[in-house]
Amino acid sequence: MLAAAALLVGCTSSAEPDPAVPSVTHATPSMAAGPAPAPPAAPAPAAPACGDPAAVVAAMSTRDKLAQRLMVGVTGAADARSVSENHRVGGVMVGSWSDLSMLTDGSLAGIATDATPLPLAVSVDEEGGRVSRLAGLIGAQPSPRQLAATSTPEQVRQIAFERGRKMRDMGITIDFAPVVDITDAPDGSVIGDRSFGADPAQVTDYAGAYAAGLRQAGLLPVLKHFPGHGNGDGDTHTGGVVTPPLADLQAHDLIPYRTLTTQAPVGVMVGHLEVPGLTGSEPASLSPP
After folding, report:
1. Where are the chain's structural domains?
2. Positive or negative, the Cα torsion across 126, 131, 135, 136?
3. Where is this region: Disordered (predicted)?
């Protein structure tokens, strides 16, 4: 529930994370074989600023509970203020179409803080590489495939932490990253170089490191695209896509999720993917429980 995410990332202190998070110099063990040792701990957050989470949600009207499940794309500060004040949605998304001045002048952060019944969650698609909405503000980052080829998981964690801290300073609370799809498809294909690789263990290690860095910076990382777009037969931006059968996904594409979904807090983005043996003709994003 988006309200839970808003409580998680919006009701704690907005103080900047301690920049002195120590670097780990020893080799990083594989997370694919089981949970890795905990990364350096970030400072404990201040007490929630908006009360007991369960009580806050319980006090909402049914309409507000439904609205809190919505996250909508906005064009700029005026649009964000309008959807917050008039519709009381749970969050807004900064997209390629958005006026980024609302991030640099502090207006979006103020709108998010003043929102009711909960602070707004503010999200962005910032993977690095060719999916980078904020490159002009926080700098460019090599693609995940390049990172896996040139960096250690610890270096990737540090990169994500530094970029995440810049995003958090601008009011971003959720990053729709990292990609945990597994593929060796060409760089420019729908997933391609957005993936950390074709090996489930490698993707688990690098995506897990990236998610850890974002968490340490105060952002909620979101794993995508569940249950696995890397070996789908097309591009979900342009049409229906069918994945390999469920048994194949369980033996390959779903492996990273078994580890990374245990490392809370973390979100999961469901893809518009038809899964033979599971969803029938409906995509996973519309599949009933």
Report:
1. 60-123, 125-172+180-288
2. negative
3. 16-48
